[in-house]
Amino acid sequence: MRTGIIGTGRIGSTLARILVAAGHQVVLANARGPQTLDPLVAELGRAASAAHPAEAADRAELLVLMVPFERVRGLLPPYAVQDKVLVDATNAFGGPGAPADLGGRGSSDLVAEWYPDAQVVKSLNTMHFETLAVAGTAPGERLAHFTAGDDVKSKEIVAGIISDLGFAPVDTGPLHSGGILQQPGGPLFNRPLTEAQALAWISH
Predict the structure, then answer these.
(1) 164: nearest Cα among 25, 36, 7
(2) How far is CA 193 from CA 2, 27, 49, 122, 198, in A?
(3) Are 143 and 195 in contact (CB under 8 A)?
(4) Exposure winner among 14, 26, 139, 164, fewest CB in 10 A?
(5) Measured between alpha carbons, how far is 176 from 183 in angstroms, rounded to an integer?
(6) Is 10 within 8 Å of 68 (Cβ atoms)?
C-alpha cells in the first residue's frame, strides 16, 4: 500500500522510515516543496518519493496528516481525498503543552467537516516520535496504537498498517468519542500502553 504522509517533521519522518522498513511505499509532502525532501527520499530509497500535498494525496491510497492542527483546514483540495482513508494524526494545542479549547468537539470532528468526502480515522497521534521509531521492533509485548472512526473498513485498513509496523491496533470507537480519548487532554494521549493494558482500559 502506498501511504501519503503530509508533514515531514520528526514524527512524519519517523513514520516514513518505519513504513518503508515494513515494506510499504510512501509519498512525502510538506509545505516547503518536494525538493526539500531530497535527503529523506535518498535515505529511504526506491520505496519513497516526494510531491506537493495535493499530488501526494492523489498518488496515495491512504493519507496521513502529520502537520500542526492549525494548518489542516484548506491544506488539501477536498476532491484530492474523496473516498480515501484520511488518518488524522494531528494534535490540537492551544499553547505549549495545553490542549486547545474546541468547545467540547473533537479535533477529528473538525477534520471530518473540512474533508467531508474522506473516511477520517483518528490514529498515530498519541506516541512520542522516539518511541514510535523503535517500539515496533522491540522485544516484549506490543504497544498499542489506537483507531477511532465511523467507517469500519477504514479502521480495519489502518489497523492492518499498525500491525505491519509491529504495534497492536486497539479500537476506541466512533470518531467523536474515540477521537476525544486520543487527543491532547484525553486519557490515552502520550500514554504508552501494552496491548493488554489498552484493552483492559477500553473495557473498564
Answers:
(1) 25
(2) 28, 29, 33, 17, 6
(3) yes
(4) 139
(5) 11
(6) no
CA distances 12 to 124, 136, 152, 177, Å, are 10, 16, 25, 25
Q: What beta strand segments (E) does the chain contain?
A: 2-6, 25-29, 48-50, 62-65, 85-88, 93-95, 98-99, 119-123, 144-149, 168-173
Name the amino acid, one letter, at 66.
M
Please check whether residue 50 is in contact with residue 68, taking contact to mean a CB–CB distance below 8 angstroms. no
Whether the CB-CB separation of 1 and 25 falls below 8 Å is answered with: yes
The overall average pLDDT reported for the chain is 96
Q: How far apart are CA 116 and CA 94, in angstroms?
A: 25
Predicted confidence (pLDDT) at residue 108 exceeds the cutoff of 90 = yes
Q: 152, 123 in Cβ contact below 8 A?
A: no
Residue 1's pLDDT band, with cuts at 50, 70 and 90, is confident
